[in-house]
Hints:
The chain is of the alpha+beta class. The chain has 8 helices and 6 strands.
Amino acid sequence: MTVKYRAVVFLLPTNTFGLPGDNAIVFPADPSGKESTVTFPSIDSTTLERTSWGTLSRYREDKDALRANSSVRGCQAGVVDNYLTLEFTVEDPLTNSPWDVARDATIALCRPLTLLTDEPIDFHIVSLQQLEGQQKHLRAARIGGTVSAYNLAELSNKVQESMEIADLRDPTLEKALTYYRHGAILRDGSTTRAWDDESPGSTQAILFKSESFLNYWKAATSIIGDRTKGDANDERGRRLGLGPDYYRTTVQPLTNLRNDFDVAHYDVQLERAKLLSPSLGPMVQVAKVLLTAYIAYLKSGGSAFSPRNP
């Protein structure tokens, strides 16, 4: 059974397409290549009030809206402004997902568009509709937002403790914390960007998670060491109060994953790297345990571990 579908996709960032968005000043480029001067609003440093508007955005006229039509991965594709419309047919939708067809075609377009615009082109699939027979809207509406619960008393204690940790000035600790923070940024990027529209198993989400895993591993081995580099892992584990077998039983299996799944190399095998996702949480936890133990060790007067490059 062949079924026809239409997908509508919202391309981002909007200002790349001459449209409002992202608090950016948007204006048309000079066709001759002449540089334009942009003035940002002036702010009074004492009152923090705006004292001038600066350059105002100049958006496109209706007649100048971007329009393009072509075929992309077997889909009839039309772009108006930053809305991409795809029409395509699917043989046996029960086994061939129309969602995957729309997603794959959009990704195929976004990759070269990112190269040519020097912008990381994201997307959000607005709707996916069956056009023939009994019409069905396959894309459910999403009412989004973020919710943050806070505990000011607990936060106050964490801020105070962070101040104390920052004043320890230990090179190994600073290196491990740097890797840990970068891992957290990458991990956040794997879930909060538009990649979730490509699905959690998308190329971008996988690469974010792979690099995140690597940085958490670096944070952990900055402290416990790496046996392949000749570090005394057993002694470090004992000094941290985690026991002499901590590296062998807990860190070594994660090190094996790091090596086996090529997360540290240019040739990341995406299908294999997908298998890292279930181990990202345990890797985060191990890095956190080692950092916590090392901080307590330093506060108790323990001598610093020698910094190294994991």
